[in-house]
Amino acid sequence: MTSSSAFSALLLLLASPLMSNPLVIAHRGASGYLPEHTLPAYAYAYATGADYIEPDLVLTRDGQFICLHDIHLEATTNVAETFPDRGREDGRYYAIDFDLAEIKSLQAHERLPSRFPKAKSTFEIPTFEEMIELIQGLNASTGNVDTSVVGIYPELKQPAWHRAQGQPMEKAFLALVKRYGYTGSDAPIFVQAFELEPLVHMRELGSQLPQIFLLSDTADAQDHLSTAGLAAIAKVAQGIGPSKTLIRKDKNLVQRAHAANLAVHPYTFRADAVGPGYEDIEAELRSFYFDIGVDGLFTDFPDRARAVLDARTDSER
Ligand code: G3P
Ligand code: CA
Q1: Distance between CA 187 and CA 92 in Å, rounded?
Q2: Which of 97, 113, 132, 277 is buried most deeply by CB count within 10 Å?
Q3: Residues taking part in catalysis
């Protein structure tokens, strides 16, 4: 590298929010402690040091974005007891078959029985707008709005499926986040999807928001992760969100993604489901942050990731 290109690379690194301090991304909120995708889980994630907080998004029948991991409701709510006749032929209860008022009448609960007990306290499914207003409210009340704003990291769930149901997500999503001030390439938001086409479409609609393409360990992942595939992703995205398995399988993936000017934010780091070969979540987090060199990671336990980053030594920086 010539001295001028090295200087350019340094400037790029310093100017990019994607590749400087590694990020703590609260996966479904602080879902290790409170039911996933509830306002308390988002608030706890905020309080325990997340840089970004993740809502997964699906649409209701009346076109409202709600925070929910699945397009179905039964894994995390009492929909089957509340609306026993509203399942489809496959026995599933689809959020898109319910109006927001009906969704709001449901009790939400944690998905995993080993976590927050199902019969304790009461929770509801938040709208995306409620989630944004909570985070922006906390940014104001904590004073972070003047220093280090906590961002949002929304995932559009199954955009192709929503489109086939007559409810395309992209345009409505961009209009909503614009109303809350998320515009431009430096907005405190990452927009993520497992489908590349919606990310392309949002660029065509004029969005400059930071975008992340998610990848799971499926047959087509290797095409996307080839040199040509990464270059194609980099035309519309600032980074990739691979499963940990993909990184385990390809030790050079992070380096190759960085060479394509893509940040790497793997998922998901869990104290109660530590990856193979690691003694505990701290060992796993240290390995991914400091040895593998990821730019951020999704975790159900944002407090643990924050503590690992706060305790890093000079040689780990
Ligand atoms: O969006 C990153 C990660 O959350 C993807 O997995 O299934 O938890 O949405 P999932
Ligand atoms: Ca997600």
Answers
A1: 37
A2: 132
A3: 27, 69
